[in-house]
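Lecture notes, continued. The same structure-token format from the folding unit now serves as the input rather than the output. Read the line below as a description of shape only.
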């Protein structure tokens, strides 16, 4: 009787701590893809008082993996091109970010009978400092040919992701994160490093059309909040990022 009791307790304990089966979500999240899209940046013009917008194309490479133990990893490398606009005073307005590499690592919690996955994560990256990438034309003669950046930010933050698996062919997801960008520019011609907060919301859907082939669509919106360290040049405000909105379509392989 004692052996039977211990056996039942052992079986019950093993069931309680059994590994979660992530295979239904791995069918979508174990993927590599290439994406193409567009974005529009809104930037406060040199001197303030107006906002300028510029549009650009996006090329994106992504690798994603959901491990059997629930660890989720996502790496994105992207670049933009065909960008830029000119303000009313003739100054070239810089855009937000020309290229970068960013990674996310989190732990996935599966709920709702294999249909819902919740993943809190941390993120880190290295991104081109596009907002401080242009010459300060129109500010002052002494700075008319001065660039204000050594071209990159360190990025770090946290976020959360929710995925809903409709069926074996369609999965929708939403992602929200908050990040801080450390501009690696030193104090230059009266301008402080352009540190900023970035809050990004993403909505997307993945379609597993046929075996090992996936099509994805997503849209995103980023709001930027300059840190108090962002300064001025010659008493005129340097351009500040306001927001970015965009979307892309991707094709990829699942594995």
């Amino acid at each position: 009787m004692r052996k039977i009791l211990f056996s039942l307790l052992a079986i019950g304990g093993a069931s309680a701590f059994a590994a979660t089966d992530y295979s239904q979500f791995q069918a979508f999240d174990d993927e590599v893809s290439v994406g193409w899209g567009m974005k529009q940046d809104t930037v406060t013009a040199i001197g303030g008082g107006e906002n300028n917008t510029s549009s650009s194309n996006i090329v994106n490479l992504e690798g994603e993996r959901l491990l059997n133990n629930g660890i989720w990893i996502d790496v994105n490398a992207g670049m933009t091109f065909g960008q830029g606009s000119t303000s009313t005073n003739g100054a070239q307005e810089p855009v937000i970010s020309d290229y970068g590499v960013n990674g996310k690592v989190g732990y996935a919690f599966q709920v709702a009978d294999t249909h819902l996955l919740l993943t809190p994560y941390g993120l880190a990256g290295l991104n081109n400092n596009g907002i401080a990438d242009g010459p300060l034309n129109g500010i002052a003669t002494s700075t008319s040919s001065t660039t204000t950046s050594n071209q990159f930010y360190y990025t770090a933050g946290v976020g959360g992701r929710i995925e809903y698996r409709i069926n074996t062919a369609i999965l929708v997801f939403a992602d929200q994160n908050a990040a801080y960008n450390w501009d690696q520019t030193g104090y230059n011609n009266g301008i402080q490093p352009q540190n900023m907060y970035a809050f990004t919301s993403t909505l997307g859907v993945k379609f597993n059309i046929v075996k090992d082939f996936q099509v994805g669509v997503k849209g995103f919106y980023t709001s930027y909040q300059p840190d108090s360290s962002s300064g001025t040049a010659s008493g005129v405000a340097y351009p500040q990022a306001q927001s970015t909105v965009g979307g892309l379509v991707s094709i990829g392989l699942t594995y």
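Point for the exam: Residues 34 and 61 are 5 Å apart (CA to CA).
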